[in-house]
Amino acid sequence: MSEANPSxxxxxxxxxxxxxxxxxxxxxxxxxxxxITDGIYRQPASALRExxxxxxxxxxxxxxxxxxxxxxxxxxxxDDGHGLSPEMLEHLVEHIGGSAKRSSEGIDLGITSxxxxxxxxxxxxxxxxxxxxxxxxxxxxxxFLIITKTPKDKFRTIxxxxxxxxxxxxxxxxxxxxxxxxxxxxxxxxxWRENAEDADSHGTEIKLLDLLPRTRxxxxxxDLWAKIDFQKEDPDSPNIEIPRxxxxxxxxxxxxxxxxxxxxxxxxxxxxxxxxSKFVQAVRGAIDTSDSVDLDILCDRYxxxxxxxxxxxxxxxxxxxxxxxxxDKEIIFFELENKPKGQAKRLSIKTGDTPRKELRLKSxxxxxxxxxxxxxDGIQLFRPIVFKNLPKTSTAVQTPLLFIGSDSQRFEKKPIxxxxxxxxxxxxxxxxxxxxxxxxxxxxxxxGNASGSLFDKTFMSYQVSEQTRTRQITAEVFVRExxxxxxxxxxxxxxxxxxxxxxxxxxxxxxxxxxxNKHKELGKSLxxxxxxxxxxxxxxxxxxxxxxxLKLRGVDDLPEVILIEKEKKADxxxxxxxxxxxxxxxxxxxxxxxxxKTGAEGERRKNAERKAVAIAQLLHGWGLLENxxxxxxEKLIRDILEIVFLD
Length: 647
Known about the structure:
With 647 residues, this protein is of the alpha+beta class. The protein has helices spanning 8-18, 30-38, 44-57, 86-94, 104-109, 213-219, 222-233, 272-285, 295-298, 301-312, 355-359, 416-419, 499-534, 537-552, 572-577, 585-588, 599-621, 630-644, and strands spanning 22-29, 62-66, 75-79, 143-149, 155-162, 172-175, 182-195, 203-209, 249-251, 254-260, 332-335, 345-346, 373-376, 379-380, 401-409, 423-431, 442-447, 473-481, 561-564, 581-584. The longest helix has 36 residues, at 499-534. The chain is globular and about 105 Å long.
């Protein structure tokens, strides 16, 4: 640029001496910014996820977020990444939606590795791609600050940005000279430089000011509290319970007055790691009072936001990566086959060794000795997926099963414009009698060890009727190369027609078939052994009938049901923890109408008990006991039996 017409970055540098902010407008492709501000991101967690991704791509080792909970008056996101130079900032505000990542321009700006434009300067596989992550904050606010500094720079750069509304405003259109794309000018930025006391410090802080009412309402669970208030006024309204865990509630229209104290699973004295660990333990422990755990019922929106961010970000697991689980008796490992009609094979791994070592697995694929931590309001996030010490159920197969596979496809016979280039991925499918919470039922696709979506319960539209089994599977696909081109603008969904997505879909459905076949085989073997050991013909016939009925429903596993005597009631909790369906015999089985305890009446009593067990198994197989309390389960089965034996 000439002296008479300096570039934006040159003007920003000059503010070091003039101390006068540089005024500029924001420019972007019209359709891009319109979609950002109109709401391509569905939840506040989505926008926070994008800022975390930006920090990761900038080689940050730590991200610290403050939300001002439960007031939610502002949000701050600070990282220790490379920071933004005036040149980077110029590109950011003048080319929203025109990312320099994965390009030679990104190398020149220092955004990507000099050796590989798909990697960060520190060697991480880049997550962001579209250049709109920072402006995802339009879902939170129209006013925010960027405070940023690069290493060795004696100055920090500050940008005060205001985004103008898209709908209804007078739009100023121009044409980008390089791309020929029509641009929209919306929003305003004031940028200046200040002296920095520590030249070696670096990183970026985003301060979100004047949060939009809808954002504050979402994070504060305003709709939930409003329903609870309405319920108090109208006893006939549907019953809405206060979540067991919540951040508290500010008094309406008095944002400095705490009306309801927080109910959290951790204490203020706990370390950041222990807080999240206790959060995960509390969610898992909720299974003691219900057949399933639903985060939508257990937690408020704020805690759900923490959980969803922990699932999305490229973080360490709360315990260990599934590929690093040591071989022992707690989990049975299988290797998936990639050939047509392949069958999973049991892995023989030496005690203490891991699937990663046995199968030479490489995911996750961050930089060597990588470290990335995220803290929100003093809580350190970890990936909340657990594979050990899971609750048992009444199914025949009690031991969790871990199916692991990998595949690659070069698409060498197709032009790269049609194929999207090479695809390389590794994956696991984890079967357990119960998946906690129920939001973990399904599959997540991860690119660069991160995901923009939560678990897909349909397993990418799996059509086979596996109603019970698919509720018992959690799966992750770690894409090491490819799939980027299938991501839609919101990074929360995919172009289903993309070759990479279709290839993974077919692989996953084959893997599900292999899992189902192996699970059926194990279950049949265990059930046969159990029936043989019992040596009870009548019970076997009842079981055969129930198995046949449930098989027509697509259910292959028969739950264990125990009718417990009154004097052994104290054993109920222990037996339920061991995975059995426990029913109080004197409540479930209708009392006899006969005063004399004859042999025929004794046989009738036994038949009633067998039918109670069969009814419980059928109801469980149909998923009708899942959302009932244990007391209601007993009452329902008793009512059915009374009708069955009605003279």
